[in-house]
Amino acid sequence: MSQSEPERDGEPLKLRERAYASFTERLLAREIRPGQFVTQRELVAMTGYPLGAIRELIPRLEAEGLIKTVPQRGMQVAHVDLNLIRNAFQFRLFLEKEATAAYTRTATDEEIAEQRQRHEAIIRRAEAGGDETLIEDAENVDRLMHEMIIDHLDNDIVSQAFRVTWLKIRLIRQYETRIQNHILIPVMQDHLKIIAAIESRDPEAAAAEMSAHINNARTRAMSY
Q1: What is the pLDDT along the chain (224 residues), one digit of tens a residue?
Q2: Chain region(s) in the chain for CATH 1.10.10.10
Q3: Which among 51, 86, 139, 165 would be 20 to 30 A from 172, CA to CA?
Q4: The domain over range 82-223 is classified in CATH as 3.40.630.30
């Protein structure tokens, strides 16, 4: 194999990754709607990437459950229903209980302290009446804590699976469960209970608090 072949192979790979990022960005921006039927050429127009990249992207989207082929109708974007909610939160529960226990055993004191500081800062802003970036910042703090716990496993397969599931959770939240003012403080307090158990270096307690937090989120989603 010549030295130039990996370089030629690398460019299509980068193109597929950019097309994937474009698809997910538009999905979260609701430019591509859950449940919508789309054609390959419509995806070309929506994402701005060529037909070849879209054709190579589709198997990944199907494997991740973000689209499915419906006989005689075409491709349908994943839609939010009770089945998606149950499956997404159950998968999170399986992953994050074990990850939280492992994180409790090996995370540094500095990492844990940083998590606490971020959450307490969000609560102080909320209690002070909030501001225009509070919701977005709170969602980032929420995501970063879960990602840090998962990524601490140092397992690329688990990290990738988690991010796909988190994408589905964000689709669910676009309806009625996005972190809004009335649930922001309770969500942050759920997180602080997890952090407190991690600080005590009690893996079972930390895993139990994470389970309670995920179940609370699932209950909110199911109620809508």
Answers
A1: 333 333 344 566 688 889 999 999 888 888 888 889 999 999 999 899 999 999 999 999 999 999 998 888 889 998 888 888 999 999 999 999 999 999 999 999 999 999 999 999 999 999 998 888 998 899 899 999 999 999 999 999 999 999 999 999 888 876 554 556 678 899 999 999 999 999 999 999 999 999 999 999 999 888 76
A2: 4-77
A3: 51
A4: no
Fold exhibited by the domain 4-77: Arc Repressor Mutant, subunit A (1.10.10)
Query: Which of 181, 168, 182, 145 is closest to 218 using CA atoms?
Result: 168
- Report residue 4 as tokens: 């130039």
Residues sharing a CB contact under 8 Å with residue 21, sequence separation 6 or more, in sequence order: none
Q: Annotate the chain with three-state secondary structure.
A: CCCHHHHHHHHHHHHHHHHHHHHHHHHHCCCCCCCCEECHHHHHHHHCCCHHHHHHHHHHHHHCCCEEEECCCEEEECCCCHHHHHHHHHHHHHHHHHHHHHHHHHCCHHHHHHHHHHHHHHHHHHHCCCCCCHHHHHHHHHHHHHHHHHHCCCCHHHHHHHHHHHHHHHHHHHHHHCCCHHHHHHHHHHHHHHHHHHHCCCHHHHHHHHHHHHHHHHHHHHHC
**pTM higher than the cut 0.90:** no
> Could you tell me where in the chain the CATH 1.20.120.530 domains are found?
82-223
